[in-house]
């Protein structure tokens, strides 16, 4: 027994993924193609995180999900697979180049019909979705985009989320830079500020899952305290 989260060295990580990871071939192929892009491939989430996110969506019975930051589509694919046949994932990104890769794999996986890709600035897309009447109707959201916009995305998503809905926010650790007092980049400051804000935000129930780069879970309370 231990009272602290166990650190993952390469050996333990390999055991956990080998033992628990359920990743279909199409998702492995997408990871492999993304890895060949070079350094930018680090923007893709870990497969064990994708599996966890899919499970969380199943647990809350999600049917309508928003993603801010799609990249080559792995996280969207993981979530879309967890939605029912009539479920809908609104994937928001600014890159036609990267999402062109995503579209191929969504089609190959048979989930393209569930995914509504919106190209454009994330905040503008969220404002448009609220104008479309989605306020208070969204079941879950995943944020993995520009860190400077995280707080704005969070506030807008809270308005779109139904009571009991879930926001999942990537990179809570920000590569361990969030806790480094020497970290003074705008991105680091933005992550650090949002983490502190979430800690005290009584509108949500909060937890941090130490998977990959740290996944923050914020569940919108039925009634704010």
Strand order of the largest sheet: 3-2-1-4-5-7-6
Query: Helix fraction?
Result: 40-55%
Largest sheet: 7 strands, mixed
Shape: globular
Mean pLDDT: 93
Distance between the termini: 34 Å
Order of helices and strands: HHHEHEHEHEHEHEE
GO biological process, one term: methylation
GO molecular function, one term: S-adenosylmethionine-dependent methyltransferase activity
Protein name: Class I SAM-dependent methyltransferase
Keywords: Methyltransferase, S-adenosyl-L-methionine, Transferase
Question: How do you describe this structure in short?
Answer:
This protein is of the alpha/beta class and 225 residues long. It has 8 helices and 7 strands, in the order H-H-H-E-H-E-H-E-H-E-H-E-H-E-E.
Description:
This protein has eight helices and seven strands. Strands 3-2-1-4-5-7-6 form a seven-stranded mixed beta sheet, with helices on both faces. The model has no long low-confidence stretch (mean pLDDT 93). The chain has 225 residues and is of the alpha/beta class. Keywords: Methyltransferase, S-adenosyl-L-methionine, Transferase. It holds the Pfam family Methyltransf_3.
């Amino acid at each position: 027994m231990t009272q602290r989260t166990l650190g993952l060295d390469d050996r333990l990580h390999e055991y956990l993924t080998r033992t628990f990871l359920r990743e279909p071939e199409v998702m492995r192929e997408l990871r492999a193609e993304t890895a060949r892009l070079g350094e930018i491939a680090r923007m893709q989430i870990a497969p064990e995180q994708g599996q966890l996110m899919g499970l969380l969506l199943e647990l809350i019975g999600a049917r309508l999900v928003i993603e801010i930051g799609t990249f080559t589509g792995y996280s969207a694919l993981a979530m879309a697979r967890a939605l029912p046949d009539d479920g809908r994932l609104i994937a928001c990104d600014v890159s036609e180049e990267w999402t062109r890769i995503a579209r191929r794999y969504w089609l190959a996986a048979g989930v393209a019909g569930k995914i509504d890709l919106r190209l454009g600035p994330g905040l503008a897309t969220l404002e448009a979705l609220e104008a479309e009447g989605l306020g208070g109707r969204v079941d879950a959201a995943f944020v993995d985009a520009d860190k400077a916009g995280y707080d704005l995305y969070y506030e807008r998503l809270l308005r779109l989320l139904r009571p009991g809905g879930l926001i999942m926010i990537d990179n809570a650790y920000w590569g361990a830079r969030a806790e480094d007092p020497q970290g003074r980049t705008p991105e680091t400051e933005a992550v650090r500020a949002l983490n502190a804000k979430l800690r005290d935000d009584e509108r949500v129930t909060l937890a941090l899952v130490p998977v990959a780069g740290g996944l923050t879970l914020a569940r919108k309370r039925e009634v704010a305290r």
